[in-house]
Design goal:
Layout (H helix, E strand, L loop, with lengths): L1 H14 L8 E3 L7 E2 L5 E11 L11 H17 L4 E11 L10 H20 L2 E9 L4 E11 L14 E5 L4 H11 L9 H7 L5 H9 L3 E7 L3 H12 L2 E5 L18 H7 L5 E6 L10 E2 L2 E10 L4 E4 L5 E3 L11
Parallel strand pairs: 4-5, 9-13
Antiparallel strand pairs: 1-2, 3-6, 4-6, 7-10, 7-12, 8-10, 9-12, 11-12, 13-14
Helix pairs in contact: 2-3, 2-6, 4-5
């Protein structure tokens, strides 16, 4: 068993061979890695689970998208604080048949998984510095990411104040729409389907988060991993405030040509998870400086922070209702 694990580790190391900078004093190959923090910066730490059956379906999700997404979703937490990723640790539990010899079927899954992870690591400038492996009947993945941000510049959830404007990036609900299409269809190419591509290969908004932090534009920020209806109340609770948002302003997916009359674009935008867009607040005096887009990514003002500690939505008919958290919750029955 030990020899099998050693071979697996060698394959992982070979696939993710890092090209680190001077900040990495010791990488893969010892009991732990050694990092040298840069003067004037704070270190950001975050971790994320990615579990078979809960976060991905082996029969539906391509192995390379699982590799890409397990890192991208963890890095999104850094984007929400205005940080920059540096390195990651991979903890991987796999069934034995997925570590077969190079010509085996299982080996193909592992090769594709590591290929997707390698592409994500290069895309986001985040190198592998170690981790752990073990065997289990189902696939369990845990990624720990280390990043950095200029001292005093990290954007927290707790900085929103009454009168601040509420903004979101991108279109909300597209990833959930992509998941629905994936479940229904035997075969769809992500190249020709924006929603499916966003679900399988999300792009954490690193450049936007860093721009908001460096310019001291955002008073608070959170990434939209569980859905607007769940993540906005979390930001408000951390800041001790409430919010009022406008349903008509929320950027939601356009109905496909084949959509039924029951297509609920607003429901997708409010409750769909996995978008990894940024939800942030901007002071009323700075809001006029906000552009409509950042490097081609739409930025939309959807509401305002209030003193009352409740979150309400103004509907199309101008009536108001409480915004209930109906996004992703692994503990909801």
């Amino acid at each position: 068993m030990k020899a099998g694990e050693d071979k697996l580790v060698k394959r992982i190391v070979k696939a993710l061979a890092p090209n680190p900078g001077p900040w990495l004093a010791l990488g893969v190959g010892d009991d732990a890695a050694l990092l040298t923090p840069r003067p004037g910066y704070e270190t950001i730490l975050t971790c994320d689970w990615f579990l078979e059956g809960s976060h991905f379906l082996p029969g539906k999700h391509p192995a390379d998208s699982i590799g890409w997404k397990c890192l991208a979703r963890a890095i999104s937490d850094l984007a929400a604080m205005g940080g920059k990723p540096k390195c990651f640790l991979l903890s991987l539990a796999l069934p034995g048949q997925l570590t077969l010899k190079e010509k085996g079927r299982g080996s193909r899954w592992l090769n594709e998984f590591l290929g997707g992870l390698r592409r994500a690591a290069r895309r986001f400038g985040c190198v592998s510095v170690g981790g752990d492996t073990t065997q289990r009947r189902e696939i369990l993945i845990n990624v720990t990411v280390v990043g950095e941000v200029l001292a005093g510049r990290a954007v927290r959830r707790s900085g929103a104040k009454a009168g601040d404007r509420v903004f979101v990036s991108g279109v909300l609900g597209e990833a959930e729409l992509g998941l629905q299409k994936l479940r229904r269809s035997a075969r769809i190419s992500p190249k020709n389907n924006r929603a499916l591509r966003k679900h399988l290969y999300p792009e954490p908004r690193l450049a936007l988060g860093q721009w908001l932090a460096d310019g001291k534009l955002a008073s608070s920020m959170i990434d939209l991993s569980d859905g607007l209806s769940s993540d906005l109340p979390r930001l408000c609770a951390a800041s001790g405030v409430g919010a009022r948002i406008e349903a008509a302003r929320i950027p939601s997916p356009k109905a496909p040509l084949t959509a039924s009359k029951r297509f609920d674009a607003l429901g997708l935008a409010l409750n769909g998870g996995d978008d990894y867009e940024l939800l942030f607040t901007v002071g009323a005096n700075k809001a006029p400086r906000m552009p409509r887009s950042f490097r081609g990514l739409a930025l939309t003002e959807i509401g305002e922070i209030t003193r009352e500690r409740r979150v309400v939505m103004v509907q199309q008919d101008r009536t108001r209702k409480a915004l209930l958290p109906r996004g992703w919750d692994p503990f909801r029955k």
